[in-house]
What we know:
The structure is a single chain. The protein has helices at 12-24, 36-46, 84-106, 113-126, 128-132, 136-141, 145-151, 182-204, 208-211, 220-223, and strands at residues 27-28, 49-53, 62-64, 110-111, 157-159, 164-165, 171-172, 178-180. By secondary structure, it is mostly helical. Strands 1-4 form a two-stranded antiparallel ribbon. A two-stranded antiparallel sheet has the order 2-3.
Amino acid sequence: FSRFPSPLPLSRRARGKRRAMNNTARALVAGLALSAAGLVYIAADESYTNQAIRPVPGDKPTYGFGSTVKADGSPVRMGDTITPPAALVLAARDIAMKEGALKACMGDVLLTQYEYDAIVSLAYNVGPSAVCQSSIPAKFRVGDYEAACKTILDFSKFCSKPKIKNAAGKWVCPPGALKPLKGLENQRQREYRLCISGIRNQESGINPKTSRSVLIPDTWHLSSGWARHV
Length: 230
């Protein structure tokens, strides 16, 4: 028998507030991991395809949830197919690799879960090297979180021609070859809103009533269309 009463179960509103506080508290990027909601976010944006496609003209073939490399390490080729469970395994592998690359270049940056999920989503789509070579890590390091989040919007174009090496030996898009793409613009807007929501919730003191629109419920994946494939 304990002298102390058992804690009362948290109300739905209190659970939402606690989750919001956890998501908007900054922590070292080395200790963060993509949240379950962040995984759903990526899967929903990438959309599942059981056959290899080219997302944009001239792009590498992808299948599943945007994977370009098969389980055996060979590149995905047009005509390849994949099942939903196998696609999720590959997505988890790809995310883990890209998270590792991001953490290596971010260093001791402090991020909220929202900011981290948004940056991992961006890296999953454009590659961690593109994110690491951008101004995003430097802006995070000096605490300019709003500017770092806004830089996500710069990745809303695709290279319509094969990349070339510049004077520094880096592969870059030829001049004039970057073209806007509505699908990328929409995805970048969603990632930007996710990233910036942590900043706004911190500034506003996190009110569950006002932050509900930017919170992603823990159970959302249970009813989302892509999860029903599994």
